[in-house]
Amino acid sequence: MIRDELKRGIMVQNPIFGLALGLCPALAITTTAFNALGMGIAVIFVLTCSNVTVSLIRRWIPEKVRIPCYITIIATFVTIADLFMKAYAPFLSSQLGIYVPLIAANCLILARAEAYASKSNLVRAAVDGIVMGFGFSLSLVLISAVREILGYNKLFGVTVITGFHPMVLFVMPAGGFFVVAAFFGIVNYRRIKKARGNP
Amino acid sequence: MNTASMIQISLGAVLINNFVLTRMLGLCPFLNVSNKISNATGLGMAVTFVMTMASAVAWIVDSTVLAPHNAAYLRIVVFILIIASLTQLVEMALQKYSPALFESFGKYLPLVTTNCAVLAAALIATMENPYTGRPFTFLEAFINGVMSGAGFTLVLILMAGIKGKLECVNVWKPLEGLPIALITAGLIALAFLGFSGLHPPIAAGGF
Predict the structure, then answer these.
(1) Residue B12 domain-assigned (yes or no)
(2) B108 and B156 in contact (C-beta within 8 Å)?
């Protein structure tokens, strides 16, 4: 069951490449793999906690005000993550800047609360949060690894290829758009090929 | 507040630190905008309106309630609720008093609630003015809100126009849809890079 769930989170319903949710952080903070990892961990924390809370109190939330309820729950956990990061990882916090509070407006988290956690029991919601968060973090680290290697010739701060001149464009916003476009192109290419293989 | 700093903030928000192309916020509506320029204008107006109101209200709430009571850590929760209720309020008011305006941009308002650019504008309104190093005054925060929205509208219209042209082009199958939109956005961002010469840029994390 765990394997199926992991496959769902990472491959089939990958939040970024499958569902195209939460693109803003995927482009904005993926300049270094370190930033991406920090962001990923924060998102796993917020997503799991909000999924669990929404699932716990889903019977008491009135239908009409459910979205404001979810938003408040999510914003609370984002505040916790933000304060925690400021206290124990000040460098990471200064690097991510405004993008930590903005996890509260990440459509991925609201989408999971609305589409999954509000309809499932505690364990399933928690597993969904961890798995989806993991898929999200993995995609962020992948994108940032490509960008950091091409843009700084480094990975997690360590020089990769000696004598390779990095292209700064790739750590600029424009380069981010191109790298993510390439990733989406590869995903689509594989999908088209698969569809042709077994019609 | 003098004219020079007003121009500085306006130029910075529209061209240099454009919300979409430099700060990468509000990408969902930007990448999925339809190829109709009228739709893009409507959505842009809705975002600008809410952004301005959110900046102003966030500044007032922060300086009168949160900051004096040492409750700055409540900003995220309070601001996101302000934005959600503000959009609801504006939508209801427009529907009742100005059906014509509602027709032009009211129907996009629900989409605005989850737009990260609006929350960012509210948070930025309570931060320091990067050009003076002092906290934003009310007028500065207000202008920053208006101009950030204007910058968002500008690139949204650009994107809608280009998407209209893309309709008649044969795009390689795997790049259809989102990838080609991302590449287009990257090219616009490259062009906007030229504006960074107008003023020393502000690092994404520093704002």
Answers:
(1) no
(2) no
DSSP reduced 3-state for A76: helix
At residue A36, the pLDDT reads 92
Residue B200 touches partner A, C-beta closer than 8 Å: no
Rounded to the nearest angstrom, the minimum Cα separation between B94 and chain A is 21
A/B interface, count of CB pairs below 8 Å: 124
Which of A98, A178, A185 is facing B120, going by the closest CB pair?
A: A98
Q: Give the per-residue SS3 of B72-110.
A: HHHHHHHHHHHHHHHHHHHHHHHHHHCHHHHHHHHHHHH
Residue in chain A closest to B84 (alpha carbons) equals: A68
Angle, CA A72 vertex, CA B78 and CA A10 arms, to 5°: 125
Query: Cα separation of A170 and A146, whole Å?
Result: 9
B22 contacts in chain A (CB < 8 Å): 173
ipTM over 0.90: no
pLDDT digits (tens, 9 = 90+) for A10-50: 777 788 887 777 788 888 888 888 999 999 999 999 999 99
Q: How confident is the model at residue A199 (pLDDT cuts 50, 70, 90)?
A: low
Of the candidates B17, B51, B11, B22, the residue with the CA atom closest to the CA atom of residue B149:
B51
Give which of B18, B28, B70, B76 to mutate to test A binding, by max A Cβ within 10 Å.
Answer: B76
Distance of CA A198 to the CA centre of its chain: 31
Is B194 an interface residue toward A (CB < 8 Å)?
no
pTM value is 0.86
Q: Are A181 and B182 inside 8 Å of each other by CB?
A: yes
Number of domains in chain B: 1
Contact (CB<8Å) B76/A75: yes
